[in-house]
Amino acid sequence: MKNYEASLLFLYMACAYALNYPFLKIAFGMEPPMVVLFFRIFFALISSIPYIALNLKRFPSGLRDNSIVFAVSMLNIVGFMGLWFVGESMVSAALSSILVYTYPIFNVLLSMAFTGERPGRGAKAGLIVGFAGVILVSIANVQIAGYAGIVLLLVSAISWAGGTVLFKKMTPHMEVRSVNVLQYAYSMPILLIFALFTGYSGFTHLNLEFIGIGFYLGLFGTYLPYLVYLLLFRNYSISRISPYFFIVPALSVIFSMIILGETIGLTTIAGFTVISIGIFLSNR
Fold it and tell me: What pLDDT is recorded for position 205?
């Protein structure tokens, strides 16, 4: 993959991921978070049918490989997105994006633990600075949003980081697009159970606006950008890509202001700035 191609793909992925946060807020006004997540993944899986039909031979067939992809799906979809959706239902879209995108910091920590990466002094300083930013953002918002949403969003970031490290370490021999599709397929039954237990009562209550948002979230906000995400991490190291992920919450804050009319305080902006510096340093 050429660098300019990677840059264009990253720009698309960043914009698509950033738009997810305000659109989720709109969807939460219609259905509970786990129902929204079920339909997001449902539409992502539907979007992948053409690839499935033409590339069945590329899918992993062994029990070990499928077990690895199942574990990736539990971390990347059920754990990460499930906790994120419930967490965002308790806080603003802007704050949600800032806390979720602390994940590059956790990426570095988990890479140190499971892939043997050894950070330099700059990386260690970046971890300290990044966590200081997390504390600053949390303190600035805990009285408004409460502890539960903030904790869920931070744990969701850890789950996503774990899924990324597992994908990077254990699936280099697998075709990226098949892993992307299978993680949706493996998570669907579990998400359906969660949806049924949290308020989903069937298709009769769904309206065209919700279906439209679900389709956007599934195809343009999940299937395509997640494919880009996995392709980038397949072709580049975690430390090469992670510093640039602070672009996503920055865009999300702007989109949330435009679409939802949200605002964030100066302390939160300062905390986000500190987090961004920490992310950049921690991946040097």
Answer: 62
